[in-house]
Amino acid sequence: MAAGTRPETKTLDKICALAAAHAGITAARVSQGYKRWPETDNFDKLVRAQTAETEGYFWAALKSVRSNGQGELAILSFYAELVVKVAKDSSSDLNAAWEFALSLRDQLQAEANYGNGEFPARITIGLVSIDAVQGMGIAVFDFGTGEAGGSMEVADP
Fold this sequence. Notes:
Blueprint: H1 7-20, E1 30-32, H2 43-48, E2 56-67, E3 74-85, H3 95-109, E4 122-124, E5 126-131, E6 138-142, E7 151-156
């Protein structure tokens, strides 16, 4: 994929790079923009092969760019979600899953992870669903899809 050349796409590149560097995710489990999975891959099966509640897949894409004109504050909004395995045959308080999601949020919000002219995201996380029947042990955290009140925005002054 080509690297972003505008501040908006460079910001998406940075968010995905930070997620790829996060313990439990790695670059192999980060998707940016549109990802077409081969017919031979089963995403649910890939998620279920991870360590429960401490590894996952992260996806992000630019959703919208809101600007009031040149020289004014621009707000970048992103679609993003984190998908993790949960134990399908036992109950869980989900503390480990939430702590995994919150540690990713902290990494994406840490000012120290951004360079000159880059701005950290403001993130709200929501738990979309836990499917321990058909999905056989999958939890989805909304980092910006809006499905469970999640949001990811960056102010670019």
